[in-house]
Every structure is written in structure tokens, then in C-alpha cells.
């Protein structure tokens, strides 16, 4: 999630744990602790693919943050033993809560979070977008309100956590509804056993994007919980294949990170790989040049280069809003049907 959300979450957690000892300084400390795991973005691993794959790694691991919180608690008690007003156990619970709720929230997004690093386990529930005001606003409002009504700081922070927590729970319920809808439609079709990826579109949990892998093709569709007709109009798009027998290590890293949800394409003499999970329709921000073709026609791996993200076309913003409200007539405009080689997939194909 974004830094504002994580700071607000950390402040709210700190306020609840501190209870009567809550103060503006406690909220500020909680906000700082809540954003601390994301400082790993300052680490450069040598190339954009490694930076992407290794983000949310050791700094988001519960196996690292738990002992780190104990260390911070011990240091704070040793440096300022009489100025925090909290027992060692309460202070440890506060620090651990602020640090560990950060990766736990991140795990609900589509990116993937290595909660058990160094074990090769990445958790991505994919029920909430990386920026969702409906989750963030209750936290921010209640934290700010607690600064005005200081006698009720802990209570107000708790209310913010409860509202946002209910919204997060709803996102999981909504994901299950969409998963059931997709499963029913793909049953008895050639795509019944194909890998499926489902994620909410930006800043909401009503309109969802579905991607289904099908060899050198992938099918993409949008479905809204407000649709009168639950049938999803899937559009077939070219996924391509890697034309070189050898797979560079960066491509292997990307395929493992995305669970094979990668698009391959050749642009001139360059070979590109694109993460199909993150983004929407043709606005896929994680596109990398991984190899180029020599004058002799052979392929050669090169240092990965991330391409600039395509600009969102203004006309698509109101279209997305209308699609969220259940207008299924604009699917073609959003999915660029003219670029698709195959007709929409219907249940029973």
C-alpha cells in the first residue's frame, strides 16, 4: 500500500496499543514505524527486475520484524527508560504491531509480499488495490480527530482501525464473489483449468480485472459487482512466447515472481517481457527489455531496462467509472477490441 496508508495504519495501531498513554508523539512514532519497512526501496540491487522482485523482501518478513521489534524495544528502554510511560511488554507490542501490520496489509495487494523471507514464499491475496481511499480515509480521519479530542485518542484510533478492517474483510468477500463468478463461467470451456489471476481495478473493490493464461494467448475481462448480467466478456490478446531457447536469469526471476503471468513481445531487435498482473488493460507499467537480436540473427541477453509506463488516456477514466457502475456496453472501448485477434469468449465454448 502507499506510504500515507501505512503511516495512518501505524499511527492508529500505536494509539490503540498505547491506550491512556497515547499522545501526539506516540502517533508520530507509530506513523514512522508504519512506513519503516518500505525504506527498502532505497536499496538498489543492480537492475530494475531485481529491484521489483526483491522489494517487500527481508524488510517485510515477519521472521525479521519480530526480533527487530524486540531489539528496538530494548534499545528504547535502555536509552530512555523513564520517558515513555509504557512497560516493556506494552512498548514491544506497540512497536511490533506497527511494523508487522505493514507487510500484513501489503499481502492483500496483487504485488506479493515475502512474509516468511528468507523462505521462498510470496503472499498476494489480491483483494485490494495498492491505493484505495475507502481503506485509507477512515484511518486518516480518525487519527486526525484524535489530535483534536485527545482524551479519546485510543478510542478514535480504534474506530478507524475497525472501519478499515471491515472494508478489508469486505474486499476478501468481494474477491470470493468474483472468483465464483469466473469459475462458473469458465466451467466446461477450454479455459476451465487454465491459470487465472483476479485483482480489483484502481481505488475500488467493485470493478475487477480477470486475466486467464492460454498458451500464446491471454484472455482479459472486467466484471463489476453491480453488473445486471454476471457474464464476463473475455477478450483474447496475444501473449506471445519467448523465441530464444535460453531464458536469461532475469526472465526466470520475473516468471517466478509473477507465477508465469508474463507477456512476451519483440519490438524491433529487442525482446520485451511484461508483468500482466499489475495495471489494467493496456496500461501495464512493468515492461522490461531483456535481450536483443544481433546482426547475425542470434539473441543476446542484456542488462534489463524498464520502459516508461504508458500514459492513461483521459477518455478511459469516465469509461472505467461507467463500467464500475455496471455499464457493460463499454467493454470493447476499454479492452481495445480492435487489437484483439479472437472474438469474446462466452460460457460453453
Main beta sheet: strand number and arrangement?
Answer: 5 strands, antiparallel
User: Helix coverage percent of residues?
Assistant: 40-55%
Helical segment count: 10
Give a count of the beta strands, DSSP E runs of length 2 or more. 9
End-to-end separation: 38 Å
Walkthrough of the structure:
The chain crosses the membrane at residues 58-76, 88-105, 125-149, 156-178. Keywords: Hydrolase, Membrane, Transmembrane, Transmembrane helix. GO terms for molecular function: hydrolase activity. There is one protein chain. This protein has helices spanning 3-18, 24-35, 48-54, 62-79, 88-106, 133-148, 153-186, 249-258, 316-324, 331-335; strands at 196-200, 207-214, 217-224, 234-238, 262-267, 270-275, 287-293, 299-306, 342-345. With 349 residues, the chain is α+β, with helices and mostly antiparallel strands. The longest helix has 34 residues, at 153-186. The protein is globular and about 70 Å long. Residues 336-349 have low confidence and may be disordered.
Which secondary structure elements does this structure contain, and how are they paired or packed?
Blueprint: H1 3-18, H2 24-35, H3 48-54, H4 62-79, H5 88-106, H6 133-148, H7 153-186, E1 196-200, E2 207-214, E3 217-224, E4 234-238, H8 249-258, E5 262-267, E6 270-275, E7 287-293, E8 299-306, H9 316-324, H10 331-335, E9 342-345
Antiparallel strand pairs: 1-2, 2-3, 3-4, 4-9, 5-6, 6-7, 7-8
Helix pairs in contact: 1-2, 1-5, 1-6, 1-7, 2-5, 4-5, 6-7
InterPro entries: Transcription_regulator (IPR053170), YdjM-like (IPR007404)
Protein name: Metal-dependent hydrolase
Transmembrane segments: 58-76, 88-105, 125-149, 156-178
